[in-house]
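Person: Show me a sequence?

Helper:
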Amino acid sequence: MSERQYVIFKLGNEEYGVDIMNVKEISEYKQSVKVPNTPKFVDGIINLRGDITPIINLKKRFNLDGVSVDSDTRIIVINIKSRQVGFVVDEASQVIRLSEEDIEPAPELVAGIDKKYITGVGKLKDRIVLLLNLEEVLSEDEKEKIQNIQ
């Protein structure tokens, strides 16, 4: 039985997970510098250990309410096409292990273009966690725009 580890993060009251192998680091929130003519869900850029890092606000990307920052807000950093990209989340508090039998395929009601970044639904006792592939949250066109942000 194969197990995977997932970083669990929150957007509002909902829990999401991302494969820990895709996460470069989790950083405390830093105010970003706005960049003109970027998509609405791009908060801006930050200097993260000498690298200019575009910051994506996942709540804005998913059209969720309540875009606010507090002491629990974190930035989950991954690499997309050799570019470091940060995703703002409300909280990133734990790492869990899930075995294959605890992961169901994404439900059919989440069909369409958005389904490509939902890798499954994790079952933990009385909780469910939507498992995401953050690399697929952006379209190819959006990834290209992110690559060109200086």
In short: The first helix runs from residue 58 to 61. The chain has a mean pLDDT of 88. The two ends are 44 Å apart (CA to CA). The chain has one domain: 3-147.
